[in-house]
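Two quick folds needed for the group meeting slides. Do the first one here.
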Amino acid sequence: MRLFIVHSAPEESGTDDDPDLISSVAILDQARAVHQAAIELGYQSRCYPVIEITETIHDIIHAKPDVIFNLCEEYQGRTRYELNIASLWELIGIPYTGNPPLTLGLAQDKVMTKRLLQGKNIRTPAYQVFKSVPENVMLEFPLIAKPSCEDASLGIISTRAVSYSLSELKKNVEILLEKYRQPILVERYISGREFNISVFGMPPKVLAVSELDFSELSDTEAKIASYEAKWMPDHPAYQKTPVHCPADIPDELRIKIEDVATQVFTLLGGRDYGRVDMRMDLQGRLYVLEFNPNPDISPDAGFIKAVRASGLSYSDFVEELIQVAFLREKND
C-alpha cells in the first residue's frame, strides 16, 4: 500500500524571534515519526510537504496514493486553511486520516465550539469576545485571554495570559489583537485541576486520562498550560508542569471525565483521533476548555503518552489510522 504523509511546510527561519513558530516546525517531527513507523510496517511511504497547492494537487493525483496521512495544520503560515486542505482530499477522493473539514473548522473557532457546548448543556467557562481593547468586562476576574481561532496554545505564551485586573486585561487583549488580527476570546479562569483526554479510533475509545501537575508552580504563577509549558522543554514552565498519565484519579471521576470527553468528540463530529482539554474546579465541576482534532502525535507528545499508557505501541496507532482510513473509503 502506498502512503503519502502530507504535512504543513513551516518556514523555519525566524523561529528564534517568534516562539509561536516552534509548534509549527514541530510538524516535521511528526511526519518523520509516522514515516519511520510506516516503513517498519511495510508500507511504501513518502513525506510530502504542502508548499504550493496547485503543485500539490497535480502531484497527488498523478501519484495516486492509497492513503493520505494528513498532517496539514496550516497552509503558507495560515492556520485557518487547515480545513481547506482536508477538503481537497475529499474532492480528490483519496482516503485520508484524521478529522473531516467541518470538525477542523468548528474546533478552530473556539467561540462556535463554546456555543455548541452550551447548547448541549456541557459546561464551559463563561466568556466574552472582543474585537477591540475592552473598556469594561462583565465577567469576574481572574480572566484568561486567547485568540479565538488558533490552537496549540498560540497566544497563551506565559502565565501572564491570566489577568487579575481590567488594566492587565486591556494590555493582554491589545497585544493579542496586534499580533493575531482576529477577535480575542476572554473567559473565566477556572482554578483547579486540568485534564487532557485523548480519544482514538472508530468507534471512539477514551484512552488513559492525563493530568497536568501544577504543584511545582509558585503561588504567584497562574496554573495554566501555557505555550512555554507545552512547547519549550528548556523553559522552567515546561519543567515545572509535568504530565501524569494515567492520572491518579478515582474511578468515579474517570468515568465522568470519559463521558464528557465522548460527548464532546461526538458533538463536534470527531473522527479517528482528538484531545479534549478540561478543568475541574474546587467543587468538582468539569469545564471543557476546547477540543483539539488531529493533535500532536510526535513520539513524546501527550497524546502518544496516552496511547502507550493504554497498551498500544506507536506503530499500532499508525497502523490503525491507516487501515481505518482505507476501509472507510471502501465502505463509502
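Then this one, please, same format:
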Amino acid sequence: MNKLISLLTESANQPLEENLHNAEAFFNNIINGLLGFLPTILAALIILLVGLIISKLVLKMMKKGMDRPTVDKTVANFSYSVVKIVIYVVLATIVLAVLGVPMSSIIAVVGTAGVAIGLALQNSLSNVAGGFTIMLNKPIKIGDYVLAEGEEGTVEVINIWYTQLKTVDNKTVFIPNGQLAANKIVNFSTSTERRVDLTFNISYENDFNEAFKVLRDIADAHEKILKNPPVVIRVLNHGENALQITFRAWVKTDDYWDVYFDINEQAKMAFDEKGIEIPYSQVVVRNK
C-alpha cells in the first residue's frame, strides 16, 4: 500500500517539477537576453541624448548666425524649419540603426510611411510645396504689408507649413502656404512709395475750383506728401447727388495710413470752414 502511494506521489510531482524547470529556463533566457542587449540599449540612449544636445546647439548656432541684418529673415526662418526636421529624422535613423534595425528595413518603413502619410496629408504636402515656392520666388517676405486670402496685415513668420500675418487690429492670421502660393497676393511693400487715392463729394452749388484750392493747400502743407510726382486733384465724376473730386498723392509706404487719415480729417474741417457742402443722398419730391 505504501509503495502504491509512493508511486502515485512521484508521478504527480514529476510534471510540476518539469514545468517549474521550464518556466525557470524561460525567464532565465529572457533575463540573459535583456542583459546581453542592455549595452546596445544604453548606447542608443546615449547617442539619442548626445544627438539631442548637439542638435539644439547646431540649431541655436544656425539661428544666431542667421540673425543678422544682411540675412533675409524669410530665408532664415524657412531654412531653420527645414533643417530642424532633417536633423531629427537623421538622428532617429541613427538610433534605430544602433538598435540593430537593418537600414534596408528603415528605408522600407520610411518609404511606406511616406506614401501613407502623403496620401493622408495631401493638403499638408501642398503647403510644404507652397512654402518652397514662396521661398524661391519671394512674392512676399517678412515685414511686408500684404493682402492675401481676404486678409490684410504684416508678414511676421513664413515657415514650412504656413505664413503668419499680424493685422492692424493686432490679430494673428495663419494662412496655409498651399493657398498662398496658388492665389493672388497683393504686396504693398515691394515699392518704397505708395499712392493715396481719395474721393471727395461736394455739392453742385459749390465752386469746385474752391474745393481744388482747399485740397491743394492741405497737400502743400502736409510734410509727408511727396512733391514729385505731383499731387493730382481733378473732377472724377458727375454723380447723381454730388460732384466727385479725386485726390491722388504719393507718399512713403510707411506713411500711407498717416496721410490717408490726415487728409480725410483736414479736408472735412477745411470744407466746413469754407462753406463747401458735402452732400448726402436725398430724394426731392415736387408737387405738380
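Slide caption for protein two: The chain has seven helices and eight strands.
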